[in-house]
Amino acid sequence: MTDPSRYRPAPGTIPVEPGVYRFLDSTGRVLYVGKAKNLRARLSNYFQDLTRLHPRTRQMVQSASKVTWTVVKNEVEALQLEYTWIKRFNPRFNVMYRDDKTYPMLAVSVGEVFPRLFLYRGPRRKGVRYFGPYSHAWAIRETLDLLTRVFPARTCSKGVFNRQQALGRPCLLGYIDKCSAPCVGRVSADEHREIVKGFTSFMAGNTGPVTRRIKREMTEAAEALDFERAATLRDHLGAIDKVMERQSVVLSDAADADFIAFATDELEAAVQIFHVRSGRIYGQRGWVVEKSGEYASADFHQGEEDPSFGGLLAQFLTQFYGDAAKHADSDGDDSTSAANVVPREILVQAEPEDLGEVVVFLEDIRGSHVDIRVPQRGDKRALMDTVKRNAAEALKQHKLKRSGDLTTRSQALSELQDALFMNEAPLRIECTDISHIQGTDVVASLVVFEDGLPKKSDYRRYRIKDAAGDGHSDDVASIAEIVRRRFLRHNQDKLDVPDDESDIFVEETTDAVEAQSGTARKFAYPPQLFIVDGGAPQVAAAQAVLDELEVTDVTLVGIAKRLEEIWVPGDDEPVILPRNAEAMYLIQRIRDEAHRFAITYHRQQRSKRMRASVLDGVKGLGPARRSELVKHFGSVKALKSASVEEIEQVQGFGPALAQAVYDFLHSDSSG
Q1: For 69, which of 21, 139, 205, 569 could close a Cys bridge (C-beta 3.0–4.6 Å)?
Q2: How far apart are CA 557 and CA 532, in angstroms?
Q3: Of the candidates 331, 291, 334, 329, which has an alpha carbon nearest to the alpha carbon of residue 309?
Q4: What is the percent of the chain with per-residue pLDDT over 90, rounded to a whole number?
Q5: Domain check: are 380 and 267 in the same one?
Q6: How many helices (H) and strands (E) does the chain have?
Q7: Among 365, 400, 435, where does a domain finish?
Q8: Domain GIY-YIG, which positions (predicted)?
Q9: What CA–CA distance (Å, rounded) separates 462 from 482?
Q10: Is residue 462 domain-shared with residue 565, that is, in the same domain?
Q11: Which of 66-75, 127-136, 294-303, 432-441 is least confident?
Q12: 89, 113, 129: which is the final residue of a domain?
């Protein structure tokens, strides 16, 4: 690792103009490319105290041995040069939105004399136009089967084409009129290319002209009493309608727009883009990428607005549309140009950074005005919500795919064992998190992972007994209380105490809805690794409790959200796991699950308290009976509509108490 101070430019030598900078390693390889409105201000951020840098940024500046920059006239030129250099140098530490090579695409080899329609997986090639990706290969085959009735273009391989050409007779598709048979000269190269142009135009969303032409020809054939041709054209129209049925109408016919949304966590980002043409969703694409240090942010929770959205969107817009324009220019298809890849309207979930420069960049590609905005209401807002849900689901499935792989889970556990110097891999891991709002309704969660997978039947949730209740919360004390209650329970389980005594330590739940017998179930065995959500203070408090309870067979660590640091008791410096390590992904998933479980319980408790608070003024009505009332009627509104006799039906309520509740709810004092 290099000390960044060795190659830091001398004070005052970095210009204050806009420009693009590059970090290079000792071999001259470009590690990172960035742009700045003010080069001096931006670069100075990289040479601050290393402990204040994000781990990925810290790794980048320590891997580099040199930084260079190029001054440009304005911020638009900086954006264009940054995009060019990212494509040229493929820097290791930049966010890269590459095509997903696992999904199939419908390809058209427009660079050939007789273009071919075919299913394709892999990197893009020059002279080939692509549609998709599709979720399943059968969807492409079915689309081709339907559309080759209308556009009888070649679908055979080069070997089959040459063989039939040598034989002088078409293949089966030529005989059943699903191929125009250019191999035997039924159509010329120009005529075949016109068929392919019609197909690509249709797939690009221009369905109206094709539909109108077929309807016109069908009418003309019927008037000329050519009923056989009219029936064939009717079948063609049915095939087109069947393909278009799969493209749901979401906006007006004139709407041409792209909808883009992100779902992120501290390490990765999932992006989804829906292409809407003539009011229909004709395409959807998605990527999951690792966030670069510049856009990595740990100061937010799942479901909250990620402060890095603006930067990620700006970089995605330039990379995606810049690449699309480049591919369109190299496809060799005259019907498609770089100007057509950028729609008139681009709808995003948050305003991109440097919006003005991004708009100029895209308008230069399109050659006309481009509108980038955040939809606020109506059908476009509803569709944006759908795109957001798809992005969130893509990120979730990406994580589940990683955790579902046995090899990956084994690697993560092995990496944790090595990083924490454990005697054995942590096959059982427990993690706790605190949730509250300004010190009220303080609760905690305890989640359990075995062999890298959640064991929800062993989840626990707690109400903090020692919470101040005065609008302030001591997270350190709360962590200490949870650790004490959890391991007191562990010690009592070892002594096999009666269940009615052990009930005082924990309130037991599961994520799934299942009947509880009322008997507190024991933990199967203690964890090899216990994680607390927090840094050095929380870890020190938890370790003090373990020492007090003489628990020596559990490894304790804390995870600090801001920089994903792992704190070990007694160490002044945290353990930093590599960002792309499987152990880091596992730790992060466990911490996120603990946070989700805690905040769900907190919301339940807060909602229950708010519902019951209106009954606080009823004399003789304690917390247990208040809860029974709310549970019986479901809401305070329903309770207010109940009669005295109906209130008497609640367990524990007599005529006097029922009348008191009724009178209170119908008096001015109840609000």
Answers
A1: 21
A2: 6
A3: 291
A4: 10
A5: yes
A6: 21, 19
A7: 400
A8: 16-95
A9: 8
A10: yes
A11: 294-303
A12: 89
